[in-house]
Amino acid sequence: MSSQYDSFAHTYRRLGAIDVRRYVDQFSFMKVLGDIEGKSILDVGCGTGVITRVLKQRGARRVVGLDISEGMLEAARCEEGKSPLGVEYVQRDLIDAGAVGPFDIVTACFVLPHAASPEQLFAMCKGVSEALSPGGRFVALQPNDGFAVNDPEFYRAYGLRASVEGRLEDAAPMTVNVSSGDIEITILTQYWTRAGYEAALRRAGLVDIQWRSPEVSPEGIAAHGEQFWSNYRARPYAMLLECTKAPAPR
Q1: Nearest to 53 by CA among 20, 19, 13, 8
Q2: 103-109 and 132-143 as β-strands: parallel, antiparallel, unpaired?
Q3: Per-residue pLDDT tens over the stretch 121-179
Q4: Alpha-carbon torsion (144, 146, 152, 153), positive or negative
Q5: CA angle 101, 102, 107 (to 5 degrees)
């Protein structure tokens, strides 16, 4: 199996080090997850393993990274080989994630937007549901459907320049050009509204759907000050999604 991410796996990893990813995305993601001590977690679309390694370091009992990209998994396994934590990596499509479950928590970062149709989005959400134990949680970092789509320079102060081409309607193809310093990446994805995601999640048996705005870490405020982050807080490019798998009927 291959994907568009194979060609820039190692480059993509470097994006995790920029300020907005460290001080906002990763901080907010872990805050929503909360205490994961002793939990089993499946990270779908795990990429180079940045999040899986943090999950294991924070006390998760079992962490499995799942990705369709051979290049991403190669980079993740290389890091695991250099500094073993006991993270497992599996090459598999999200729609088949139930085969490696069940888990207490499933996590994802910018994975669901790659669904090309409502039926594929439902299949991906069903894969998440099938990988969860009843009552288990799904926590995802998702594109904000209200991001600054017409202003490529809006996020420049935060380390990113992003230009977007495509219609703002569910399942519409989008081309996202991202650059940071000498890093330049083009990602082919789809645009989805929150309502589009929620319809697929509910159909897959996921309930108590909540959207949370990202927060800036104390370290991020100390590094740049409160005012620096005001524009990003007003129009973040990402939101946190949290929901649960409906308990089994009695």
Answers
A1: 13
A2: parallel
A3: 999 999 999 999 999 999 999 999 888 677 878 999 998 888 888 899 999 999 988 88
A4: negative
A5: 80
In 3D space, the residue among 97, 79, 99, 96 whose CA is nearest the CA of residue 87 turns out to be 79
Query: Which has the closest alpha carbon to 27: 207, 244, 246, 238?
Result: 238
* Secondary structure class of 102 (helix, strand, coil): coil
Query: Mapping DSSP to helix (H, G, I), strand (E, B) and coil, where does residue 64 land?
Result: strand
CB 34 within 8 A of CB 107: no
Which residues, in sequence order, are CB contacts of 39 under 8 Å at separation 6+? 60, 61, 104, 105
Cα–Cα distance between 240 and 199 in angstroms, integer? 17
Residue 131 host element (H or E): helix 118-131
Give the contacts of 228 (CB within 8 A, at least 6 positions apart). 157
Number of H helices, E strands in the chain: 9, 10
Chain centroid, CA 112 distance in Å: 8
What phi and psi values does residue 166 have, to the nearest 5 degrees? 150, 165
Q: Are 199 and 239 in contact (CB under 8 A)?
A: no
pTM for this one?
Answer: 0.92
Beta-bridge mates of residue 239: 142
What is d(CA 212, CA 208) in angstroms, rounded to the nearest whole number?
13
Q: Are 93 and 28 within 8 A, CB to CB? A: no
